[in-house]
């Protein structure tokens, strides 16, 4: 029997998770502007050094995402979340300490970004894998929408707050706000009562080796009729947008001569599209279906990037705000719907490895795109890099538009896992444990 709409308001553990993450997301928005600003203005980073900041932040998703998925499926995910938030609070607090003592250098900032990125890999995989055990499957889109809504709201309040803090106390000390937000988030998660059941090996059986389990997660994503197209689009889109955003802040500061407050306001006003995407994602998928919502929002969001290089030097703010709003609406509505689909169709024991495989495939392109953006900007100029990223983004959605994803109607239920005989017949990677593609994947 279906619960009435809004049932998550009575789920106290979800509300604690939501509250803690809302606070930490607001703090993260401060660092997302303050750390690049510190590199560009305080440490006088070159365009290539500046692009390395993004590379080192996302490189861990290439190196550690797949092993992280195995450990997330082996351990209690709530504990990973608690350790992840508390560790990031400590590492972020080191930045203002090093700056105050005159010891901060660009290489140290890169190292800190890399270590924080490793922790974020484990946190993000555990976070997306924890939600399906915390809420009913029929409430996944509602849960993801609420979580994404606060991210979008933070994108409005955070940049303005960050711009004000940078102007008032300088960028290094503005980062303290983010460290404090992680401490508060940790406190909320410590109070959650929901306890997970960790899968245990049967008596007489040893724990499976890591690599076969990693391959099992990849097999699930790459072999699934829908997930492989979602992964392909998201990876390509992330590469192209990373080319663009790798040098966007430098372009805004050095070519368009925007102040920190103007830049913060630009992000804040443009993020109204993200809020609209979070508020309407559930309604869109009910009105048009899950597949059309995924495909339509992906295509619409890709149109926003072209407005960045088109922004005139004399009055760029309207173009930048509109581009951010279009991109934000499409990206948020797309992410809510496709993440909910992934969580709904994946067996519980594979949630960590599925999310890790997706992150490895789709976030692994981000440092490559960021590095490409820095290289293009160095060789041909900042605006050329914006054009390359924007045009590439326009073509990224074409394979998704032509795939079977567009035919998905209602949110499907969890797929049935194969019997040992079926797994062996399908040539599974682990006899008796490898899942088959989804129910509509027979002709994939």
Summarize the structure.
With 444 residues, this protein is mostly helical. The chain contains 21 helices and no strands. The chain is globular, with a radius of gyration of 22 Å.
CATH topology: Growth Hormone, Chain: A
The fraction of residues assigned to DSSP E strands is under 5%
The best one-word shape is globular
CATH hierarchy class name: Mainly Alpha
How many strands, which pairing sense, and closed or not: the largest β-sheet? Answer: none
How many alpha or pi helices? Answer: 21
Task: Quickly give the structural class.
Answer: mainly alpha
Unreliable stretches, pLDDT < 50, 5 or more residues? 418-444
CATH superfamily: MFS general substrate transporter like domains
* Distance linking N and C termini: 33 Å
Give the helix proportion (percent range): over 70%
> How many β strands by DSSP?
0
CATH architecture classification name: Up-down Bundle
Q: Mean pLDDT across all residues, rounded?
A: 81
Sketch the topology as an H/E string, one letter per element: HHHHHHHHHHHHHHHHHHHHH
Give the count of structural domains: 1
Output the radius of gyration.
22 Å
Structure description:
By secondary structure, the chain is mainly alpha-helical. It has a single domain, classed as Growth Hormone, Chain: A. Helices cover 74% and strands 0% of the residues. It contains 21 helices and no strands. The model is unreliable at 418-444 (pLDDT under 50).
Give the SSE map.
Layout: H1 12-42, H2 47-63, H3 65-74, H4 77-100, H5 106-134, H6 140-169, H7 171-174, H8 176-190, H9 210-222, H10 227-245, H11 248-255, H12 260-270, H13 272-288, H14 290-301, H15 307-310, H16 317-345, H17 351-363, H18 365-380, H19 382-396, H20 398-401, H21 420-425
Helix pairs in contact: 1-6, 1-8, 2-5, 2-17, 2-18, 3-5, 3-9, 3-17, 4-5, 4-8, 5-17, 6-12, 6-13, 6-16, 9-17, 10-17, 10-18, 10-19, 12-16, 13-14, 13-16, 14-16, 18-19
């Amino acid at each position: 029997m279906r619960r009435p709409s809004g049932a998550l308001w009575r789920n106290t553990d979800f509300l604690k998770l939501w509250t803690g993450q809302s606070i930490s997301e607001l703090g993260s928005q401060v660092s997302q502007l303050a750390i690049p600003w510190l590199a560009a203005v305080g440490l006088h980073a070159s365009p290539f050094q500046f692009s390395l900041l993004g590379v080192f932040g996302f490189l861990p998703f290439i190196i550690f995402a797949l092993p992280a998925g195995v450990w997330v499926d082996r351990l209690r995910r709530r504990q990973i979340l608690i350790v992840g938030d508390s560790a990031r609070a400590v590492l972020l607090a080191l930045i203002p300490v090093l700056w105050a003592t005159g010891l901060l250098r660009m290489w140290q900032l890169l190292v800190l970004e890399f270590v924080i990125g490793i922790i974020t890999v484990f946190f993000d995989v555990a976070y997306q894998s924890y939600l399906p055990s915390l809420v009913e499957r029929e409430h996944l889109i509602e849960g993801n929408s609420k979580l994404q809504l606060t991210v979008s709201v933070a994108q409005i309040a955070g940049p303005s707050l960050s711009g004000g803090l940078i102007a008032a106390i300088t960028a290094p000390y503005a980062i303290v706000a983010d460290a404090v937000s992680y401490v508060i988030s940790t406190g909320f998660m410590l109070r959650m009562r929901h306890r997970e059941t960790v899968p245990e090996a049967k008596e007489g059986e040893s724990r499976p080796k890591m690599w076969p389990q990693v391959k099992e997660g990849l097999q699930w994503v790459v072999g699934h009729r829908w997930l492989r197209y979602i992964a392909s689009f998201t990876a390509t889109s992330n590469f192209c947008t990373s080319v663009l955003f790798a040098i966007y802040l430098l372009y805004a500061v050095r070519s368009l001569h925007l102040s920190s407050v103007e830049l913060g306001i630009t992000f804040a006003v443009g993020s109204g599209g993200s809020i609209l995407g979070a508020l309407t994602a559930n309604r869109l998928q009910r009105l048009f279906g899950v597949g059309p919502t995924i495909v339509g929002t992906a295509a619409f969001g890709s149109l926003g990037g072209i407005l960045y290089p088109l922004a005139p030097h004399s009055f760029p703010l309207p173009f930048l705000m509109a581009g951010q709003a279009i991109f934000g609406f499409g990206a948020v509505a797309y992410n809510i719907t496709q993440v909910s689909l992934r969580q709904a169709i994946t067996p519980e024991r594979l949630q960590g490895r599925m999310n890790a495989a997706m992150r490895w495939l789709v976030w692994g392109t981000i440092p490559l795109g960021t590095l490409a953006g820095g290289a293009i900007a160095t060789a041909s100029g900042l605006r050329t890099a914006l054009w390359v990223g924007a045009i590439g983004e326009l073509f990224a959605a074409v394979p998704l538009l032509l795939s079977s994803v567009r035919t998905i109607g209602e949110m499907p239920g969890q797929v049935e896992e194969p019997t040992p005989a079926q797994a062996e017949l399908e040539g599974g990677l682990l006899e008796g444990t490898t899942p088959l593609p989804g129910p509509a994947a027979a002709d994939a």
